[in-house]
Amino acid sequence: MRITNSLMSQSFLSNLGKSTNKVFRYQEQLSSLKQVSRPSDDPLKVSKILDLNNELKQNAQYKTTINDTIDFTNVQDSALANATNSLQRISTLTQQAANGTYSADDRQAIKKEIESEVETMMDSLNTNFGGRYIFSGQNSTTKPFTIDRTDGNFDIVYNGSGENVNGNVSKEISRGVSIDLKTDGNVLFNEREVDGVKENISTIFKDLFTALDANDTEALGGKLLSQVGREITNTVNLRSGIGAIQNRLIAAKDRNESEYLNLESALSTNQDIDLAETYMNYSMEMVAYQASMNMGTRILQTNIMDYVR
Fold first, then answer.
1. Percentage helix, strand, coil, to 5, in the chain?
2. Which residues contact 18 (CB under 8 A, 6 or more apart)?
3. Is the distance from CB of 117 to CB of 85 less than 8 angstroms?
């Protein structure tokens, strides 16, 4: 093959263009600290980087949900702890009222204190967290428990999700994994049938107040004391269930943080440059580029007069 000046010039310009592109690419990587700046640099890698960024955003959203849910269950636990304390005080007062040495006036004083404890317990169960009532079920903006005193009554009314509706709220804590929060206040009502008679927390207090007014020490020290004890057990069991949910959420939080670190590592591997290696490659390409420029200067400046001399 005949080598002409034109061929040498074309070959030089082609190689110089390739060298210039390499230098430009390394300059761009060093200035941005990223392996790719546009999809055309490496379509497959750019697609993977976009997927990893989406995964990180979703991970951050799950982390926010988990932290918010942990705080929510902490508030629930605190409310149930206060409610348990109130029930235990009511149990103590009921036991005192069953004492035959107490007078009618003493029992009326006990009745007032029990009413106060019931109101305190309802205040605890009506706790609001972040604009949501913690035991309203699906009706999270509705105050769950109210006390109806119409016509001298003392009825506890639940205003949350209906009796036949699942009042638990579900939260997604990771992809495909959800957890049900115990927000159904009907559980606290503890509707049940004992010896053929239906009872719940409302009927228990009504019967308790009736027995105090009638000085019925037998009912106070027997049936009513047992009923209050069952309410305490029911509240403690609900609190234990919430504690189990808290443990699951803490484990989910640990997994979420571990997944975040893995995603960050994978993103860095695909997106960030190795600074030392990239700078070394840039230096080598610059040497090749400068050498090519020097050689090109000689080739392009050669003409027929150089051969006549």
1. 70, 10, 20
2. none
3. no
Beta pairing class for 169-174 and 177-181:
antiparallel
DSSP letters spanning 155-195: EEEE-SS-TTS--PEEEEEETTEEEEE--BTHHHHT-EEET
Structure tokens at 41: 């640099």
- CA 234 vs CA 11, 77, 191: distances in Å: 88, 14, 11
Instruction: Tell me the two tokens of residue 294.
Output: 């020097």
Domain spans, the chain: 5-33+273-308, 54-255
Q: Which residue has the tokens 């955003």?
A: 57
How far from the centroid of its chain's Cα atoms is residue 113's Cα? 40
Contact 168, 137 (CB under 8 A): yes
Q: Which helix H or strand E contains 199, and what residues bound it?
A: strand 197-199
**For the structural domain made of 54-255, what CATH number should be given?**
1.20.1330.10
Which H helix or E strand runs over 266? helix 225-271
Per-residue pLDDT tens listing for the chain (309 residues): 555 556 666 666 666 667 667 767 766 767 667 777 777 667 887 888 888 889 999 999 999 999 999 999 999 999 999 999 999 999 999 999 888 888 889 999 999 999 999 999 999 999 999 889 999 888 888 899 988 888 777 888 888 875 556 778 889 998 889 999 998 888 887 766 556 566 788 888 888 998 998 998 888 888 889 889 989 998 999 999 999 999 999 999 999 999 999 998 888 887 777 667 767 776 777 777 677 677 666 656 555 545 455
SS3 225: helix
DSSP helix/strand/coil, 111? helix
